[in-house]
Structure formats: C-alpha cells, structure tokens
Amino acid sequence: MTSHTEYGEKTNASEVVEAFSGQIKGKTILITGIGPAGIGGEAATAIASQGPALLILASRTLSKIEAVAEVIKTSYPTVATRALVVDFASIKSVREAAAKVTAYPEPTIDIFIHNAGLMDLRQEHRMSVDGIDEHLAVNFVGGFLFTNLILNKIVEAGRIKGEARIVIVASSASPISPIRFHDLNVEKAATDVPEEERPNLTILEQLRIPTDTKYIPFVAYGQSKTASILFAVLLGELLKGKGVTVNTLHPGAIRTELQRTTTDKDLGASATMMYWKTLSQGASTTLVAAFDPALKDKSGVYLEDCQVKQAMPFATDLTIAKKLWKVGEELVGQRFDI
Ligand SMILES: NC(=O)c1ccc[n+]([C@@H]2O[C@H](COP(=O)([O-])OP(=O)(O)OC[C@H]3O[C@@H](n4cnc5c(N)ncnc54)[C@H](OP(=O)(O)O)[C@@H]3O)[C@@H](O)[C@H]2O)c1
Fold first, then answer.
1. Choosing a second label site near 57 at 20 to 30 A (CA), which of 3, 68, 80, 202?
2. pLDDT tens, position by position, 251-272
3. CATH class assigned to 13-332
C-alpha cells in the first residue's frame, strides 16, 4: 500500500515531490534517460524543486542532458547537477560510465532511477553493437551491468543511512512476452519457441497490431521489459537486509520520444484506447516508487498509476529471475555475486 491511495493516473509530479519533500532533500540521486521531452527529464526537474544534494543526469545524448540541466539551473540554481553520458546499447560504454560513477567523490548514491529505455517498432530488426536484440540490450542488459557495477555506492548508502532505493522503469508491455530463453534475440516465429516462452498474441490482436511476421517488435519490447522486472525482483531479494530496496513500475502512456519510430497506426487500437498522460502525470509513478515512505523496506513492488499492482507471474518468478541473471552474466562476461 502507498501513503496516498488517492493518487492515480492524473496525479502530477509536483504533487508527489511536494508530499515527499523530506525524502528528497539532501539526497544524491542518479537518473538515466534524461531529455527535455521525456519522463526522465520531467522527473529530474520535479525532484530538483525539493533540494536534493546532487542530481546525476545520465543519458546517451549530452545536448539533451544539458537542456534539462539548464532548466534546473534556471529554476533551482542551488541544486547541483552532473552529466553522465552512457549508451546502454553498448557494454563498453556502460563499463566506462560505471567506472566514472565509481570514481565520483561522493561515497554514496541514495536513489538510482533507471528510466532509460527504447521502443523501436520498425519492422527491420536491429541488434546492438554486441549482437544482442536492441530492446533486450538497452532495456535489460545495459541496466543489469550498470546497476551491478555501481551497486557498491548504493549499498553504502543503505549501510550508512539505513535506506537506499533502486527504481527500474518497466512497462505494461511486459505481459506481451515472457523471456524467450531459446530465442533471446527474437528471431524465431512465435510457434517455434517452447510453449512457456511464447508471446501473448491475443493482446496484440485485440489491439489490432499485426502478428503475421516472424519478428514482432512489440514482442521484443515486451520481453525486454519482462527482463527488467525479473532483474529488479531478484536484485531486491539479494539486497534484503542491506537497506536497499528495488522496485519497478509502468509510467502510463505518455507521448514522448519513445514513439519516435512509431506512428499511431503502429500502435494499433491502443493509440485511441489509452488515456495519454501529460508528461507530469507520466513522471509521478516513478516518483512514488522513489520517495514514498510507505515503500521503505519493500522490494519486489510493481506500481501503475501511483499504486501497487501485480506484475505477470512470469515476470516475478524467482526461478526464472535466477536463470535470467545467469544469461545477463554470460552476455556481459562477468559474474556478480551479491
Ligand atoms: N512513454 C510511454 O508511453 C511509456 C510507456 C511505458 C514505459 N515507458 C518507459 O519509460 C521510460 C522513459 O521513456 P520516455 O517515454 O520518457 O521515452 P523517451 O523520451 O524516448 O526517453 C527515453 C530516454 O532513454 C534514453 N535512451 C534510449 N536509448 C538509450 C541508450 N541506448 N542509452 C542511453 N540512453 C538511452 C533516451 O535518450 P535519447 O533521447 O538520447 O535517445 C531518452 O533520454 C522508458 O524506459 C520507457 O520504456 C514509457
């Protein structure tokens, strides 16, 4: 249960940060996926209004980070910001960025919000530089590696202050696909993978999204978001007793650059069926996950519209999560024993 059961899809970011101001003041907060037109930039600006000690703004495009930092500097000149460039589609880039974070003078990171994400609905299937399906690479593998590499600073915050949080922005697209352990790169037709790994094509058909191709972009996106929830669930378990919680959420449907490769036609009936949140409303669920005191000591929580909801069983099963963790380790070529 959250502190504000009255919050919902129309709750604005400003309302949330004002309510949880005491949780923000003086904190060191790292947010990924920063741009002026996205949820990350909106969340960062809302957080800045409540006086954090330092906002580390991470993303792959420096000019977009700088645009958000400029807004913060103009409105909240006493808030310190720092830019961190990282491409989550590249294992090398993630390692370089994580090394920078490790070398920062601040010994702790209180809140890590992993918001960066990609949805590429073009029919041409793209792989990362490391040969991984681009959705899985950006939405899971890059974050898996980055989080593990910077974890010491978050655990240190948990140890010294008794509380640190990791928040991973997932999506309501998770129910579309479980993890395809036999076809991680989403190259086989739906019927060519074991039954328990097949996508839920009914959801897509109901939304009138074409399912007659071997590569269905929504399946790749769905799998990658399922992976991000599974990662959070297991990481939360592994960090129990260390003062660090790990939770996930769906921010809602918000018109951002997430739809940059997409038209409303690609989104099928969902484009007209959904309530499109404003950017501010789209940032609030992330902010509840990051700051609501009622979630202190709680891991494995999944939120939608600022309230606790249930994610799919295939996205919360610890056995599947452990199997995926091993896949993550193999893909990045490093073991992480917590
Ligand atoms: N908007 C929605 O309706 C919706 C619904 C469900 C879930 N979400 C999730 O919410 C999060 C934020 O999305 P958004 O709507 O704000 O979309 P957005 O405007 O496209 O923001 C995504 C952010 O992630 C960054 N990013 C993308 N690929 C990256 C990479 N390889 N390395 C580093 N950064 C990368 C983008 O940087 P560039 O701009 O420089 O590419 C951008 O800053 C995502 O995780 C998304 O999946 C959004």
1. 3
2. 999 999 999 988 888 787 778 8
3. alpha beta
